[in-house]
């Protein structure tokens, strides 16, 4: 069994103010014409409640970009998965390479955050990806396999995002056949660990997805959607990417 539908998720990173609601409204309007694809926007935490209220009853889901592993506690500045859920989120990105790089998150941290997301009833979108150096050294498959083994929780309710670190925000992308190769490896490992449920897990591609390259990247084998950064900030571009699944 394949995943229910492809998913296009926008990762706004540290961009967006209350006044950005117009982009969301355009995305909500545009998503009505795209019934074959699930659409999600992951704004900064400050906007999750406002965006969730605006998107209620629409085809657009709202997600967080990170969460703490614990429900609550003395963790100044952190936000729990339960808080995101309470604010209206349906999903949470965990283990993004920027979190791994700038916040020292390890595979073990990412796994506890993914489990927190599941505990709160959110869909964790778990990110993995190799650096340029690792790819050039022929280590891509080993790196991804290790990240999957260390970052994935025991229950198969999550999505994986394959995001080569060197492709993020760089305008460079792997060739579609390289994407298919890594996604194939991810699918094999999901099957091995979760059996048939592993077939239903969405495997998203992320890293410099644009309207110009979306079709060739998203039609590669075992690609079930995209995690889009820069191009998700403009409703028109984001919708053009989602329209690959028209
Ligand atoms: P990008 O970012 O689309 O701007 O490369 C993707 C991501 O980091 O999720």
Description:
By secondary structure, the protein is α/β, with parallel strands linked by helices. It contains eleven helices and eight strands. The chain has helices at 21-31, 48-55, 81-86, 97-102, 107-119, 132-136, 140-151, 176-194, 197-200, 214-218, 235-242, and strands at 7-11, 38-42, 60-64, 91-94, 123-128, 159-162, 203-206, 225-228. The two termini are 21 Å apart. The chain binds 2-phosphoglycolic acid.
Associated small molecules: 2-phosphoglycolic acid
Please mark out the parts with pLDDT under 50 across 5 or more consecutive residues, or reply none: none
Round the mean pLDDT to the nearest integer and report it: 98
Which CATH first-tier class would you pick?
Alpha Beta
CATH architecture, by name, is Alpha-Beta Barrel
Topology:
Blueprint: E1 7-11, H1 21-31, E2 38-42, H2 48-55, E3 60-64, H3 81-86, E4 91-94, H4 97-102, H5 107-119, E5 123-128, H6 132-136, H7 140-151, E6 159-162, H8 176-194, H9 197-200, E7 203-206, H10 214-218, E8 225-228, H11 235-242
Parallel strand pairs: 1-2, 1-8, 2-3, 3-4, 4-5, 5-6, 6-7, 7-8
The structure holds 2-phosphoglycolic acid.
2-phosphoglycolic acid binds at residues 11, 163, 168-169, 206-209, 227-231.
At a glance:
The protein is α/β, with parallel strands linked by helices. The chain has helices at 21-31, 48-55, 81-86, 97-102, 107-119, 132-136, 140-151, 176-194, 197-200, 214-218, 235-242, and strands spanning 7-11, 38-42, 60-64, 91-94, 123-128, 159-162, 203-206, 225-228.
């Amino acid at each position: 069994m394949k995943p229910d539908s492809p998913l296009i998720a926008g990762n706004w990173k540290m961009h967006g103010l209350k006044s950005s609601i117009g982009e969301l409204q355009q995305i909500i309007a545009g998503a009505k014409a795209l019934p074959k694809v699930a659409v999600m926007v992951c704004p900064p935490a400050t906007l999750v409640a406002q965006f969730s209220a605006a998107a209620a009853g629409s085809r657009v889901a709202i997600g967080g970009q990170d969460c703490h592993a614990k429900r609550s506690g003395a963790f100044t500045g952190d936000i729990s998965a339960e808080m995101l859920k309470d604010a209206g989120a349906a999903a949470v990105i965990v283990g993004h390479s920027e979190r791994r790089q700038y916040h020292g998150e390890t595979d073990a941290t990412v796994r506890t955050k993914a489990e927190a997301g599941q505990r709160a009833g959110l869909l964790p979108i778990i990110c993995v990806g190799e650096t340029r150096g690792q790819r050039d050294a022929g280590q891509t498959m080993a790196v991804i396999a290790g990240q999957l083994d260390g970052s994935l929780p025991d229950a198969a309710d999550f999505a994986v995002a394959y995001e080569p670190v060197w492709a993020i925000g760089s305008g460079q992308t792997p060739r579609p056949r390289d994407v298919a190769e890594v996604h194939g490896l991810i699918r094999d490992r999901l099957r091995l660990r979760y059996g048939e449920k592993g077939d239903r897990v969405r495997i998203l591609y992320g890293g410099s997805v644009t309207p110009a390259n979306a079709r060739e990247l998203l039609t590669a084998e075992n690609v079930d959607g995209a995690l889009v950064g820069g191009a998700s900030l403009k409703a028109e571009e984001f919708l053009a990417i989602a329209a690959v699944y028209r």
